[in-house]
Amino acid sequence: MNDHRILNALSYFSILFAPIIVPVLIWIFAKSEEVTHHAKAALLTHIIPTIAGVLCFSSVFVTALTSGGALSSLSFFITGSLFIFTLIAVVGLFIFNIVRGIQMLCEKKEEDIWI
């Protein structure tokens, strides 16, 4: 099996055990342009849920600070919507990373046929 395919798949599968660290290390130390491309893509799909989670939890704290008043129902609606969006984004990108890692392992190239 080609080492490039393993590193590409590892970049995506790292969402299970070290979401941001592994793609950064592969991106820094990889010598192939293909591997660095997939490491960057995996890093992006690992960072987006992290940023969304930080925004969601900071929104929860802001909502907790605004107790009562006319804006409380609006802030609860916005917080609930942001929480649902964050949940969908995290689950969707988790599934995307797993599927993309499987695609990297199953990918056939002409050089692999003769090995």
TrEMBL record:
<keyword id="KW-0812">Transmembrane</keyword>
<keyword id="KW-0472">Membrane</keyword>
<protein>
    <submittedName>
        <fullName>DUF4870 domain-containing protein</fullName>
    </submittedName>
</protein>
<feature type="transmembrane region" description="Helical">
    <location>
        <begin position="6"/>
        <end position="29"/>
    </location>
</feature>
<feature type="transmembrane region" description="Helical">
    <location>
        <begin position="41"/>
        <end position="62"/>
    </location>
</feature>
<feature type="transmembrane region" description="Helical">
    <location>
        <begin position="74"/>
        <end position="99"/>
    </location>
</feature>
<dbReference type="Pfam" id="PF09685">
    <property type="entry name" value="MamF_MmsF"/>
</dbReference>
<keyword id="KW-1133">Transmembrane helix</keyword>
<dbReference type="InterPro" id="IPR019109">
    <property type="entry name" value="MamF_MmsF"/>
</dbReference>
